[in-house]
Design goal:
11 helices; 5-stranded antiparallel β-sheet; alpha+beta
């Protein structure tokens, strides 16, 4: 069974919707215009319930099937990135410094396409919860939606999400059971000493010297404390200090990220960073504070739901275009919070090889929108069939 004919008939509209969203990007939780656009479409489709204002601008739409049953959740993210666009397309961002560089305009469009089809056909039992989420690109919109009780409030039994990928051929699907995206922890280190003249370091307590030692020690944490078979990356990405070449500053700030899949290894990294900071504080006479200002858990797929998603994928594209053994990615996703609360699966859809996500030249491939929408719709019909169907 290829792309659903009815959804294929929406192709021009899907392209128009996606390009409208692309031209009007919004950031974080402030997706007010995008939410209004989504609500307008859901109302036109005849969606049974529309709940807005969740996590500020998040939306949950409910479509009732033609029989009793559970509720399946389908999630799409809506926010853009704070970066300039360099695509040269006619529908490029009209808002300087904002761009849909991660395909969220396409994700929202694919879920809207599935919503229209499901509202028109209702060839399933139970209910579908259409989850349109803000603030995936920082801010933890997925976490906030969960904290506001989306899963319990709408009695969602399983939850699925689709993400475009410019690293795979167009119209292919990629997923796997277990971790598919890394946990990410930001760390921030503040080192305070005593400033002074560079010619008399003995009268100062040099935070730069301490920062160099801390930085070197951080580079040994993975190689000397973590099993070589565990995939983990610790990157020190920021060091800020000083205002003049002849001044020893009072303060140095440092920061970076930790990306991991194994909770035990993640805990070891946290512990070793704390030990390094405590030890260097004692050795160098400075004051060091360590914080983890933002964290996301690993995105961990549930095996049974991966099989269900793969079945739907194979119904939309040829079986040899469906890969269920993809290697984990070191990026992070706040859909992880939804997968902590309910079983489900995170699936990548190839859009063709091209500029990577978060690149100013990236653009979603409109040709895959009917494929992604058909995946969502087929997943619902297959996982929640009517009682008189096999």
């Amino acid at each position: 069974m290829p792309v659903l004919d009815q959804i294929a008939g929406y192709s021009d509209e899907l392209t128009a919707w996606r390009r409208h969203i692309h031209a009007h990007p919004e950031l974080g939780f402030d997706c007010h215009e995008t939410a209004k656009f989504v609500i307008d479409k859901l109302e036109r489709f005849g969606v049974d319930e529309i709940h807005s204002g969740i996590a500020t601008t998040g939306i949950v739409g409910i479509i009732n099937g033609r029989g009793a049953g559970r509720t399946i959740g389908l999630r799409a993210d809506m926010d853009a990135l704070p970066m300039p666009e360099d695509t040269g397309v006619s529908y490029a961002s009209t808002r300087p410094g904002r761009m849909h560089a991660c395909g969220h305009d396409g994700h929202t469009t694919m879920l809207l396409g599935a919503a229209r089809y499901l509202a028109e056909t209702r060839n399933f039992s139970g209910r579908v919860a259409l989850i349109f989420q803000p603030a995936e690109e920082g801010g933890g919109g997925g976490r906030v939606m969960c904290q506001e009780g989306v899963m319990d409030r709408f009695e969602i039994a399983e939850v699925y999400a689709l993400h475009t990928s410019p690293w795979y051929e167009a119209g292919t699907f990629h997923t796997a059971p277990g971790p598919v995206m890394a946990a990410v922890d930001e760390f921030a280190i503040e080192i305070t000493g005593k400033g002074g003249h560079a010619s008399q370091p003995q009268r100062a307590i040099d935070p730069v010297a301490a920062a160099l030692q801390v930085g070197q020690a951080i580079q040994t944490v993975v190689s000397r404390n973590i099993n070589a078979l565990d995939q983990i990356v610790v990157s020190l990405t920021e060091i800020h200090a000083g205002t003049a070449h002849n001044v020893i500053p009072n303060h140095v700030s440092m920061g970076g990220t930790i990306r991991s899949y194994n909770p035990e290894a993640r805990g070891i990294i946290h512990r070793r960073l704390a030990e390094i900071c405590d030890g260097m504080q004692a050795a160098m006479g400075v004051t060091i504070s360590l914080r983890f200002p933002e964290s996301l858990p690993s995105t961990v797929n549930h095996p049974a739901q991966v099989e269900m998603a793969a079945r739907a994928c194979r119904s939309v594209v040829s079986p040899d275009s469906v890969d269920t053994s993809m290697a984990p990615r070191t990026g992070a996703e706040d859909f992880s919070y939804m997968l902590q609360e309910r079983p489900g699966a995170f699936v990548f859809i190839g859009q063709g090889i091209g500029p990577g996500v978060h690149n100013p030249a990236f653009d979603f491939n409109d040709e895959i929108a009917p494929i992604g929408a058909s995946f969502f719709a087929t997943l619902v019909e297959q996982s929640q069939p009517l009682s008189n169907q096999v």
